[in-house]
Amino acid sequence: MVSTDVLTLTLDDDEVCFQKGETLYEVAQRHQKEVPTLCYDPRLEPFGACRLCVVEVEGMRIPVASCTAQAEPGMVVQTRSENIEQHRKVLLEMVASENRELDVDPLHGYASQELTTLLDRYEARTGRFAGQLSGQSKDDGNPFLLRDYDNCISCYRCVRVCAEQEGDDAISVMNRGFETQIVTEFDGTLKDSSCTFCGQCVQTCPTGALGDKKALRAKDVPEELEKTRSVCPYCGVGCSVDLLSKGDQLVGILPAMDGPANEGALCVKGQFAFDFVQHPDRLDTPLIRGTDGDLHEASWEEALDKVAEGFRKVVEKYGRHSVYGVASGRTPTEADYMMQKFIRVGFGSNYIDNCSRA
Ligand code: SF4
Ligand code: SF4
Ligand code: FES
After folding, report:
1. Which residues are 288's β-sheet partners?
2. Which of 24, 29, 37, 43 for mutating ligand 3's site (highest number of atoms within 8 Å of CB)?
3. Which atom in ligand 2 lies closest to the alpha carbon of residue 158?
4. What is the separation of C-alpha 249 from the centre of its chain, rounded to a whole number of angstroms?
5. Residues lining ligand 2, judged by CB closer than 6 Å?
6. Would residue 88 count as lying in a domain?
7. Same domain for 72 and 177?
8. Residues 264 and 309 reside in one and the same domain
9. From CA 208, how far away is CA 147, in angstroms rounded?
10. Final residue before a domain boundary, out of 216, 248, 268
């Protein structure tokens, strides 16, 4: 049962309401406070690794990580005090000292600009701290995922999204401190692991350490990168996607984090299998097999007449129930409607189904 008690706390000098179980970060977000994060992904359990989301809470000796701290009645919280902003800047400078490449192409993935954007926002210097660098890059020959751990900041979003969203545990963390390394089981290749190549680790990585190899093929294409909201054509789930294009070329796919059916998740097909769209072997005209056994280009009228003739012969010989329609899961609802009309009205049969099951 939902509690009707009104819970309040003070947030940047304003009294605000919150619900039991909310974290300080969630409350702050709801009230449009700009609290920076790096290890946070709203789809995942809070982790508290980067400490960038710290806020001041009256009575607490040190700043607290707002993404893991539960909101409590009567708390007095400051999200943007001078001290806190300075604290965040130093943290960012420490994080950046581990990261070698800050000019990250957005084709790397959905969240790949997060660190760079924060460094710009805080005017954080990147060469302030010098220390040992962690993470070794892995070119394991897989066709989809760039694994450039030179840029890893050990936020573990990739490991957590794999476990919590994909239920896969294909990757994990080895060693600690500067020796920290994201690895597969027994440090093998992704292809030999339980990885399903869903791409979720790529899309949540905030530094571009993980990247979409297929999208990055278009890195040097000069046209501007554009996004177009669409629906994945592969099955009946209807995952929302943002198509990435340069000029008239489809160059990549981003999962839509606000997609009602997928909330940022995709499978390997939806994420990476888009080459068919511009493939030179793709049919762009009907083909009819001639008496010579070869396929010949034909007009749509010729092709449709040929199909109708074939159906007519089958029904005349074997009856109306000899035809069974299976609508494609890749077609829109209107086309599926036409398909069932075609079978029910055209043939007088109820033998109609679809493959819209994931
Ligand atoms: S690879 Fe990316 S997501 Fe994974 S721990 Fe490193 S920075 Fe975080
Ligand atoms: S691609 Fe998917 S299954 Fe593979 S490691 Fe990344 S999140 Fe896990
Ligand atoms: S976002 Fe809260 S600790 Fe990283």
Report:
1. 296
2. 37
3. 7
4. 20
5. 161-162, 166, 168, 170-171, 195-201
6. no
7. no
8. no
9. 9
10. 216
